[in-house]
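Title: Comparing notes on inverse folding

I've been comparing how different people in this forum approach sequence design from structure. To keep things fair, I'm posting one structure and asking everyone to reply with a full sequence. Here's the target:
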């Protein structure tokens, strides 16, 4: 089978990601982007990737246009957007936050736009052997700040709490949302979670850790959760159902954005119009909650 030009391009792009993450940036902008008008290149947040896959499939079936999403993480997606090597980024934070955390100059992002498109409940997961089924948000805060270290202190068995979560240094909207809703800010500075934790970059390894350790606890986007990891806790006696999320009784959720540069608007506008339509919102609502901020 012959490789398409876009396949070759993305192989070359991805081959340079390690260099980019370590601080270098290969000269991918020099690669000719002769991709078809029927293909749109995008990259972004590792949790929002699942949302893009849902939208990609629905959009392709309707328009015969391919969205080619790459699960790079926010930091690399921002670098690709700066270089002009993708048409838009899908992220867990608006571009203002990412520009600041990536030390981008105002001139570099002056024509960027962020559009909120969906929300994803953040779920708290524990081992199946743990008899707990609910925590208050205050108890959750005390567990992840390190104040509570044994499940018996919240009505559970005499069992050591074993924390696992994504490292704070990774630009994750799920991580930020969880910290905002639990440990919060002091003098405007977002506080860190307990350092007494096992850190993994993605939900699969955290899920495996939870399934093998009775006292363990983690959090992740609902879209990343799999039953084999463990069971989902209620928070403040509210399960992360669509109804509880809409009525506000479930307190944890991540927000997903699309970021694009004004000079790419003509390329991505048809896709933007699709996700703003009833059909596009229905595709979002399969596994997420549609939350379209504005028209494009």
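Reply #1:
Here's my take.
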């Amino acid at each position: 089978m012959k490789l398409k030009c876009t396949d070759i391009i993305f192989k070359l792009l991805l081959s340079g990601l390690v260099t980019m993450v370590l601080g270098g940036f290969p000269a991918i902008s020099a690669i000719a982007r002769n991709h078809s008008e029927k293909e749109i290149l995008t990259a972004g947040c590792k949790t929002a990737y699942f949302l893009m896959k849902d939208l990609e499939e629905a959009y392709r079936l309707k328009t015969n246009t391919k969205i080619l999403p790459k699960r790079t993480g926010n930091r690399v997606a921002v670098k690709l957007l700066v270089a002009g090597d993708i048409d838009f980024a899908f992220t867990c934070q608006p571009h203002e936050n990412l520009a600041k955390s990536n030390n981008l100059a105002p001139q570099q992002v002056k024509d960027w736009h962020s559009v909120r498109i969906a929300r994803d409940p953040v779920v708290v997961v524990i081992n199946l052997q743990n008899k707990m089924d609910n925590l208050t948000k205050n108890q959750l805060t005390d567990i992840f700040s390190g104040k509570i270290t044994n499940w018996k202190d919240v009505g559970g068995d005499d069992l050591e709490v074993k924390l696992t979560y994504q490292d704070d240094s990774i630009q994750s909207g799920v991580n930020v949302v969880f910290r905002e809703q639990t440990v919060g800010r002091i003098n405007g500075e977002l506080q860190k979670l307990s350092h007494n934790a096992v850190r993994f970059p993605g939900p699969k390894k955290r899920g495996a850790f939870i399934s093998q350790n009775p006292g363990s606890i983690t959090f992740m986007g609902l879209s990343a959760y799999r039953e084999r990891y463990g069971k989902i806790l209620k928070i403040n006696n509210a399960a992360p159902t669509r109804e509880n999320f809409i009525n506000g009784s479930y307190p944890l959720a991540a927000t997903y954005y699309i970021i694009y540069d004004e000079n790419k608007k003509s390329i991505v506008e048809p896709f933007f119009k699709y996700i703003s339509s009833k059909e596009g919102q229905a595709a979002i609502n399969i596994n997420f909650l549609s939350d379209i901020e504005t028209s494009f």
